[in-house]
Design a protein that fits this description.
2 copies of one chain form a homodimer. Chain A is an alpha+beta fold and 241 residues long. The first copy, chain A, is built from 8 helices and 12 strands. Chain A folds into 2 domains: 135 residues, Sandwich (Jelly Rolls); 80 residues, Arc Repressor Mutant, subunit A (Orthogonal Bundle). Chain A has a 4-stranded antiparallel beta sheet with strand order 1-8-3-6. In chain A, strands 2-7-4-5 form a 4-stranded antiparallel beta sheet. In chain A, strand 11 and strand 12 form a beta hairpin. In chain A, helix 5 crosses helix 7 and helix 6 crosses helix 7. At the A-B interface, strand 5 and helix 4 of A face strand 5 and helix 4 of B. Chain A binds a DNA duplex (30 and 30 nucleotides) through helix 7.
DNA sequence: CGATAAATTGAGCCCAATCAAGGCAAGTGG
DNA sequence: CCACTTGCCTTGATTGGGCTCAATTTATCG
């Protein structure tokens, strides 16, 4: 629906964009080579260590970002320190909040992560001039809205076990580009991050992981590597279907 | 930033739009009289009784809506019946999810409500042709996203008392157009709806309202009318500031 | 290998859910 | 006008799921 451009040969593309995920599935997919060149002049690729901050809560934003590799956690914090992760961004996802006003999120790399940082001002201007880009950003916002609302149901109404099961399904599904093989996949979040995402404590997450393992729905190898043995059982445990 | 139109005299406007809130603050604010006329040809005003359904979960959507009066609750339901209200729409708010795919919400009038129903197909087409309208819808989505993320923090990390206090602040602030006077304001939701919004049970909501009353932070007149006696205390009780 | 952080496990407690009873206001029919 | 119903809310007693605090165990990394 959006894309109608860029089957052009690699050599037309700015160096920065040639092997970029964002160009294939992200917001850059709707840009022509000329537009890519224009925006790439004000872009830069950055590698982030696990835990590294991308934007702090309340900070003035001057760049947007595309996630190229890794996972970024968006979080909000209460004045007394309680924290909630309100979204996860995976490769080809966009990070940013057009139309400045409001919003007050922190963004941290959850694992080693590459992002492409774009000039906010430039992209805003281009979104104004290129309707397809504006629409692409609109769709991105709607996707995030859908995700946030799904998660509201999870946080408001699901039990600890259901939340953990829902999380595993989310990662298993939404995280295709993450390292995975026959023996399962790698969780891109620590127990502490998972707890912050699920509105639980570390201990409860750990116990529920253990419970899912003991009921043979999943298998664990170390604390990060997960294999789903009974997908149907996991869906049931997540209160789906 | 959006608006650059319509200081035109009332008589230029379609009858339907003349006294409409949506024209002043809603998405219709960016439309010219001619565009309003075009869209209003495929619009109709409806009055909804409390509890009346606007769209069911999973239903195919053929209209968008503007809320003119009252309150609309957007909700999601688990297969076993557990329900979560994921958003409230007040007068001048837009109800709808452009770009069809995904999203699976029910919408119910919480109180007696007037909505203006617009042809989805027409508005989609107009949003494609009128950049300002597309941007207005984009901003609307971002506003909803901000709200959803605030609520994620509330549902994930706040206690029952903090949730109830947060809810009262939300209504007191966001519901300016609702009936109010010196003795406070009218809650637009029943205890059951409040519970569904806060991820609590009716009984807990009732108890926490009682607790806030006993600590002289609010006063209750019947079960619907609320007066805030100690705004600062309420903010503290909501874990803000 | 030792040091330090991360994850698991256990014991006890507390907040909110559950179960159950009763109050209150509006409507209905005799 | 009063008995009765019905829907909504409040209050009480009890239970239980998830939190807290604390002790190990297991990864991770110099």
């Amino acid at each position: 629906m959006d894309g109608h451009v860029t089957n052009s040969s690699l050599s037309n593309l700015p160096l920065l964009c040639r092997f970029c995920e964002g160009r294939r599935n992200g917001i850059c997919a709707v840009l022509t080579p000329a537009q890519l060149l224009e925006i790439s002049r004000h872009s830069s690729r950055r590698q982030l260590a696990p835990g590294e901050k991308i934007v702090a809560e309340g900070e003035e934003i001057s760049s947007y970002h595309n996630v190229l590799r890794g996972v970024v956690a968006l979080s909000k914090t209460l004045s007394d320190g309680r924290q909630q992760i309100v979204g996860l961004r995976f490769p080809s996802d966009f990070i940013g909040r057009p139309y400045g006003d409001e919003s007050d999120l922190a963004a941290h790399a959850a694992v080693e992560t590459d992002v492409c940082s774009l000039s906010r001002e430039r992209l805003d201007r281009m979104a104004f001039e290129v309707p397809d880009l504006g629409r692409r950003l609109h769709r991105q916002a709607l996707k995030e809205l859908d995700e946030a609302r799904d998660w509201l149901l999870t946080l408001g109404r699901k039990t600890a076990k259901e939340r953990v099961a829902s999380f595993l399904l989310l990662i298993a599904a939404g995280a295709e580009p993450l390292p995975r093989n026959a023996t399962g996949f790698e969780l891109p979040l620590s127990r502490a991050h998972i707890a912050d995402f699920l509105g639980l404590t570390i201990e409860t997450v750990s116990r529920q992981m253990g419970a899912l393992r003991r009921s043979r729905i999943i298998a664990l190898e170390g604390s990060r590597r997960v294999a789903i043995h009974d997908a149907e059982g996991l869906r049931r445990a997540a209160a789906l279907g």
